[in-house]
Give the backbone structure.
Amino acid sequence: MENKCKIRVCDCYHEDSANCWHCNHNENPQEGDLTDNYISILDKVNELFKYLTDEEIPDGILVESRPKLSQNKAWNLIWFLQEVTHCLPDHIERCDVCGELYDSNQEGFWLDDQYELNGKILPKKYWGSYCDGCAPNVNFSMR
């Protein structure tokens, strides 16, 4: 039996994606059997974010009418694809301070009323999404 790539061509990031149907790269990323061609979900969502904001168009893509969304509108669309349609995994977050995307399975914090500071509910001014580099420098704890 022929071993075909389990990634659809439109999802394939292999250098020679036209022949992707016959490769086996990127198989079983959930099992940690990654190849050198593996592109993380964070990198893929970052690429979508840059495309939506017209910062960078992926190599090999020719589009006459390119989207030029603000960063907030682009993130709102990505959020919708995560939370409403479940087309994208919901562990990619955007830092409220620097605006960078991060993988919340690897870093960062989402602070809200589940946390406390000095024995009281964390004040709303600290609520939000933070990458490791931008997290508030306060001693908060889980309630």
User: Anything to note?
Assistant: Residues 1-29 have pLDDT under 50 and may be disordered.
